[in-house]
Structure formats: C-alpha cells, structure tokens
C-alpha cells in the first residue's frame, strides 16, 4: 500500500500497516511535490492532520471558507475533516511539502499549539524550512532509526512553529528595532552572492557589533551570518528547482567559489545533500 493511500485513511486504519511506527506521532505521508500544469485540488477533506509548506511558487488555499494566498515559505495547518482546496496560480510553478500525520488514540492538545488558526507564518530562510525537507528525506529511508528521526523532526517543527506563531501574535507593531532589522535583512538578501562582513552591517544599522548581534538574535533566532547561510541554502534550493544549473554553478551563484565547501555547508545545515533534496522532488 503506497503512502498516498495511507494518508487518505482514518487514523486507526493506518496503525498496523505503517512499518516501523510503534508510537505517535504516526506519519502517513511526507513528500515534496512538483505540481504539473493545470493541477489543483478541490474541496478535499482529510481524516488526519496536514502541514502544507510552499517550497516554490504561489497558490490560493481555501480552508473552511477562508482563502489564504500562499507563497514561498508559507506554512499552513489543517485538521481532520476541514474542507480545503489547493489552487496554484496559472503560469507559475508550484512545489510544496506535505506532511500528513495523526496521534492514534492519544488526545494530543493541538489547539494549545495553534489555537484554531490555519496560517502559521512564513518560514523561508528559517531552520523549519530545512527540518521539513530533512523529514522528507528521512521518510523515504527504510528502518526504525529513520522513522524515529522523522517523528523527532515533526515534533520539533510543531514546537518551533508554535513558538514562532505565538511570538508573532504577541509582537508589538511599533517595535523601535524593526526598521534597522529590515535594513539588515534586506541587505543580506541583496548580497547573499558575495562575502558580507559584519562591519558592513554595523555601518548600515548604526548599531555597535554587540548590539547588532544581540538584537538580531533576539528577533530572528540566529546571528546575521547564520541568517545569511539560511538565505544561501534556500536560494540554492530555488535554483535547483527552477534551473538546470549544475551543483558547482549553483554554489557559485550563492557565494561559494569552492563546490566542496558549499556541499559540506549544505549537508551540515540541512542534514542532506543538494542532490538528495532534488531526488526527493516528486513529479505527478
């Protein structure tokens, strides 16, 4: 029985069929999917929980009468029996990661994580992006150790997404640090293809080195240089999906003159190589 069939079953129907899963969360589908032209889903209901993450492209995502326009990095969550559709925008590629799961007989308090919301936030250039793709890679590997890795990654993703969701919900819109942070973030996005020095960011923001590092880490969860690495990783993924460039050419485009240094960095940060990431892209 394939995983698409498992993901359509009721939770109790899957237990006993899933190999190597002996306790919750039970993951019945974890894949990265590249939608063909004119692909769409209309008014579907699932019997399990679903995380839907946009890797590339744009799609409208109606859930229970409310429509979310999703773009790269957006993470959506819907619950069993919630009617939803996925409607990619015409003439745009749409690549997504879908995680379908349940907790068996456990009354897991999902509402404490996300209340009744569906849109959890944008996680482009965020560790959650790489945790999701790492989960997909591990899910395709046989053996108990890989299944346990998947479960650990899923629980980390739910925890980190909940933390970010609550932080965003309680954030003050007039935070005086935001203009400087936006300047630094935009600068990193504009210059990821070359070496960026911390002194450049100090001059740009007008902050001292210590204040810059403290404030950036406080609001972004990582240092500016770590954030630059995440940008490069996600740009590399985009190029792998959208172009026919070689890995060496991709490495150069994202600021690495040596492909081996790029490869070690990518695997260290994501848990898999760029070629593994591409190999897990499913075409319908």
Give the helix/strand class.
alpha+beta
Beta strands, count: 10
Shape: globular
Q: Could you name the CATH class of the largest domain?
A: Mainly Beta
Q: What CATH architecture label of the largest domain applies?
A: Sandwich
Structure write-up:
The protein is of the alpha+beta class and 284 residues long. The chain folds into two domains: 3-170, Sandwich (Jelly Rolls), CATH 2.60.120.280; 178-283, Homeodomain-like (Arc Repressor Mutant, subunit A). 46% of the residues lie in helices and 20% in strands. It has a six-stranded mixed β-sheet. Strands 2-7-4-5 form a four-stranded antiparallel β-sheet, with no helix packed on it. Strand 4 (58-63) and strand 5 form a beta hairpin. Helix 4 packs antiparallel against helix 5 (144-170) and helix 6 (178-190) crosses helix 9. The mean pLDDT is 89.
Summarize the SSE layout with pairings.
Layout: H1 3-8, H2 11-14, E1 26-34, E2 41-44, E3 49-56, E4 58-63, E5 66-71, E6 74-78, E7 84-88, E8 95-102, H3 111-114, E9 119-122, H4 127-139, H5 144-170, H6 178-190, H7 198-205, H8 209-220, H9 224-242, H10 247-253, H11 259-270, H12 274-279, E10 281-283
Parallel strand pairs: 1-10
Antiparallel strand pairs: 1-8, 2-7, 3-6, 3-8, 4-5, 4-7, 6-9
InterPro entries: AraC-bd, Homeodomain-like_sf, HTH-like, HTH_AraC, HTH_AraC-typ_CS
GO molecular function: DNA-binding transcription factor activity; sequence-specific DNA binding
Protein name: AraC-type DNA-binding protein
């Amino acid at each position: 029985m394939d995983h698409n069939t498992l993901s359509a079953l009721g939770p109790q129907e899957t237990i006993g069929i899933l190999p190597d899963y002996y306790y919750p969360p039970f993951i019945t589908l974890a894949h990265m999917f590249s939608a063909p032209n004119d692909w769409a889903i209309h008014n579907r209901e699932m019997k399990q929980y679903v995380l839907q993450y946009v890797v590339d492209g744009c799609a409208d995502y109606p859930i229970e009468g409310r429509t979310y326009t999703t773009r790269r990095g957006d993470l959506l969550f819907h619950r069993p029996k919630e009617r939803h559709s996925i409607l990619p925008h015409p003439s745009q590629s749409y690549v997504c990661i879908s995680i379908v799961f349940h907790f068996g007989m456990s009354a897991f308090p999902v509402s404490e994580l996300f209340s009744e919301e569906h849109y959890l936030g944008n996680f482009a250039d965020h560790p959650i992006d790489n945790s999701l793709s790492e989960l997909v890679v591990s899910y395709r590997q046989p053996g108990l150790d890989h299944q346990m890795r998947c479960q650990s990654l899923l629980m980390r993703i739910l925890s980190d997404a909940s933390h970010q969701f609550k932080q965003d919900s309680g954030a003050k819109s007039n935070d005086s640090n935001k203009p400087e942070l936006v300047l630094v973030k935009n600068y990193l996005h504009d210059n990821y293809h070359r070496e960026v020095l911390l002194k450049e960011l100090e001059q740009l923001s007008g902050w001292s080195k210590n204040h810059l590092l403290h404030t950036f880490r406080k609001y972004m969860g990582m240092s500016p240089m770590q954030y630059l690495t995440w940008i490069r990783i996600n740009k590399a993924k985009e190029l792998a999906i959208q172009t026919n460039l070689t890995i060496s050419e991709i490495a150069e485009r994202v600021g690495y003159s040596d492909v081996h240094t790029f490869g070690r960095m990518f695997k260290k940060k994501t848990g898999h190589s760029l070629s593994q990431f591409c190999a897990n892209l499913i075409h319908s």
